[in-house]
Amino acid sequence: MMEDSNTKNLKSGRVVYMNGVYVPETDAKISIFDSALMFGDMVFEMTRSFNKKTFKLDEHIERLLYGVKIYEIPLKKSAQELKEICLQTIEQNEPFFSDTDEHRLMINISRGPLGVYAPIFDYKLEPTVVVADFPLKWTVSYMGKLYDEGINAVLVNQKAMPSYLMDPKIKSRSRVFYQMANIEASKFKGKNNWALLMGLDGHIAEGSGDNFFIVKNGVVITPKPRDILVGISRNYIFEICKEIDIECVERDFGPYEVNTADEAFMTGTPFSILPVFRFNSLDIGDGKFGKITKILIDKWGKNVGVNLIKQIKQFSDECIEIREKTAGTTNPYQFSSK
Q: Which domains does the chain have, with CATH numbers?
């Protein structure tokens, strides 16, 4: 008798932390009365591991708790308690990961069910805290080719969220503007199209869940941390550049500077660094893998003991079935099934 996909999923063995208990990942569900569903009122973080060791976990939790504070979510857990939950979740799930898998934590915190629905919960309202752990390769399942073909950064009409409306430095689930940018980018001709957003001031801001860098005359340049989500990976580029004595600066720039740059790249937690070869289908520099981009990838990989390019290409090879069965669906970083 053949097992269907739901049966296979139930047997994955992986569990999810939900408000003090561990449940099978298929049973991990948030109430329809939760503020996260009603308002997108949830802060979150997503991490990755290198050689099974979670990268920059303290920094992710610190940013998460800044969001909890600013959104006034009445969470009573400390940074250390959240860290222990994350590490325990990884420990619980490690037996169900292969030797070459990496962990991908998803940490969600909302203020919980809204007060108007309190009778349903016997008036015991508390924040919703969820920590899930699944294979990183799902997120990067199609990215292997991007090291050879490069990203085409598409300047979309959708603008970045200005901080005077809702500060994008808080990593929240209120991010439909990112999704609209992705939808627009998916309609652009060609392949490997990733959205690039400008701020209302006309300067380049960020991608839809990733940070953008250009390189000009040996200097690494990224937008000022104003109307963007200031990524943990973005900040690590500054650390790497300092280690290898490459100048890295924050400054405003527009489309002209992207068109005239020598090279460009994106940063994000799951993939670390991906090269950008084109901007609106025009070559950036010679339209090939940039020298400094490659130096940064190699240095990052050396620091964490992983060949980044080799690993993501390997993960992509392992996920052919996933790509085939999810083509055309909404996936992180995959905006077109072309």
A: 13-138 (3.30.470.10), 143-326 (3.20.10.10)
